[in-house]
Amino acid sequence: MAKLVSKTYGDALFDLSVEENSVDAMMQEVLAVREALAENPDLAQVLRNPDIGKEEKLNLVEKVFKGRVSDNLTGFLRIVVDKQRYGELDAILDYFVARVKEYKKIGMAHVTSPMELSEEWKARIKEKLLATTGYVEMEMTYAVDPGLIGGLVIRIGDTVVDSSVRSRLADVVRRLQRTSLEPQKEMRE
C-alpha cells in the first residue's frame, strides 16, 4: 500500500514539475525539504501526532515551508498532510528523487567488493557501467564484504550482477547436490 501511495503522489509531483518545466528546481527543493525534515525530527513528530488537528498541521506546513520552497511544493505538502499521508512522505519524496534521476538518465549503482577498491578500479567500473547501460551519469556507492572472497556484486535498481567467488562456489555446490541426487533416482528405477 505504501508503495502505491508513494508512486501515486510521487508521479503527481513529477508530472507537475515536468509540466511546469521545473524538474531541476523541484528536485533541489525536495532535497531541501528532506534535509529539513531529517534535521528537525520534532516537526515530523508533530505532523504524525493524531492528537493535533489537521488545521494546525496545515498551518504548520505553511509557516515552515511557505517562502522557502515554491508554492507548488508547499501546496503539495499541504495535500499530503490534508489526505493524512504524512507517514508516507519520506517514501513519496524518495520516489520523486528516483523518478527525476531516471528521467535525467542518472543511474545509481551499489558495488560490493571483498576489499576496498582503489580509485582507479572505481573509475574503471563506473566507465564500464556507463558504457553498458543507457545512463549518461552514474552515482556510485561502495561497500566492502570480505565474505565475497573475490569478484564484485553490482546492483543497479532491481538488476544484480553477482560475479563474486562466494556466489560461484554456491552455484558449484548446488550443481554437485543435484548431480549427486540424480544418479540415486536412476538407481531406484
From TrEMBL:
GO cellular component: plasma membrane; proton-transporting ATP synthase complex
An example molecular function term from Gene Ontology annotations: hydrolase activity
Cell compartment(s), UniProt: Cell membrane; Membrane
The entry's keywords: ATP synthesis, Cell membrane, CF(1), Hydrogen ion transport, Hydrolase, Ion transport, Membrane, Transport
Pfam families reported for this sequence: OSCP
Gene3D superfamilies: N-terminal domain of the delta subunit of the F1F0-ATP synthase (1.10.520.20)
Membrane-topology annotation of the record: Peripheral membrane protein
NCBIfam families reported for this sequence: ATP_synt_delta (TIGR01145)
UniProt record similarity statement: Belongs to the ATPase delta chain family.
Chain's role: F(1)F(0) ATP synthase produces ATP from ADP in the presence of a proton or sodium gradient. F-type ATPases consist of two structural domains, F(1) containing the extramembraneous catalytic core and F(0) containing the membrane proton channel, linked together by a central stalk and a peripheral stalk. During catalysis, ATP synthesis in the catalytic domain of F(1) is coupled via a rotary mechanism of the central stalk subunits to proton translocation. This protein is part of the stalk that links CF(0) to CF(1). It either transmits conformational changes from CF(0) to CF(1) or is implicated in proton conduction.
Protein name, UniProt field: ATP synthase subunit delta
